[in-house]
Amino acid sequence: MTPLPPTSLIIVSRHRPAALMRALVAVAQMDHPHFEVIVVADPAAIAQLRGSAQPYKLAAFDEANISKARNIGLGLASGAVVAFLDDDAVPEPTWLSRLAAAFADSRVTAAGGFVLGRSGLSWQWRAAYIDADGFDTPFEASPTVSLHSGDAWRAVKTQGTNCAFRRDALLAIGGFDPGFAFYLDEADVNLRLAAQGGLTAVVPDAVVHHGFEASARRRADRVPTDLRQIGASLALFLARHSKNPGTIARHIADQRKRLLRHMITGALEPRDVGRLLGGLHDGITNATAPAAPLPPLRPGPLPFTPLPGTGPRPGLVLSGTAEQLATLRQKARSHSAAGEIVTLIALARGLRPHQHRFTPEGWWEQSGGRFGRSFRDGTRVSWAPADVRLAQEKAWLAKFRPISP
Description:
Distance between the termini: 25 Å
Oligomer: single chain
Helix content: 25-40%
Number of domains: 2
CATH architecture of the largest domain: Alpha-Beta Complex
CATH superfamily of the largest domain: Spore Coat Polysaccharide Biosynthesis Protein SpsA, Chain A
Shape: globular
Strand content: 15-25%
Structural class: alpha/beta
Radius of gyration: 21 Å
């Protein structure tokens, strides 16, 4: 088996300390045996982490610009591969090793995996192309790792919460463009890397759970509170990549449709739609001009600082009824502290759909009705006997993490 490349995992966070700490608990359970963790976050979060026993590389940064923050992390990275994870996301234990393994092929300069949404049991993102006009085109990816070429007009799109790049290739194109404070930042990198001839690996079994915490630009239910930066990023992206002068009008129409859907559900008031569209237009009008090309970034001088105690570890499933949940959680706490990957499945009576989440204390927990559906595209009701149902759930989870026999 080809050894995994030394990998630098970069997490950017701003004013979401609870989400960041949960992400770091999950990161410590990665089965990749040789990776370092770089956290670029607001000063309060960095101060909290300075007291940690873990050898994180830390950088304080409190500006609402994810591209600048990622470039700071890139400057601290010493691994051959740099991976990115959002602070409101939780990776499966196999995530980083599977993503990094794709770089064994020297032609690969980028890799992306699949993303599960808030329920932990429905896909938020799988595979899509991004084109020079800024539009996604989903495609059915192979169930195994697949390699894809692109060019300046179309490339495989990687999601910022589940992506990795060959460090030298990312440095050579200037990293992330600071003009993209938010939105289309990875898409810009994808097109610029593809134009250099690199391949992108789609790794379906490299899975991250992404919950969408609230931020300065959106609520926790994903309803936007400000579209100025989306407008600015759109204008910058299209100025750099698109040759179609009518594209911006299509994007404005799409944003208007999105806002109207929120208004119909009651999540926005009619006056909010006008205010948000006004901000979108302001962002477009006042966008910065693209710098083309970006100058290469220089690698930082810091030594590689791997996280101790990572690598493969045993898994354990604890199962029972909702009435037994308190006892099961006590067991989960004990086994997790002992270094096991713990999955707790506690089902109640009824048909309630399942939820699957990672707890801040370090174990996975699935809840729902005894006969309720788990994965969202599955049958609404499952009449399987209890032992058969448990075996089905374990078989699904075993694709992504160690599961006890």
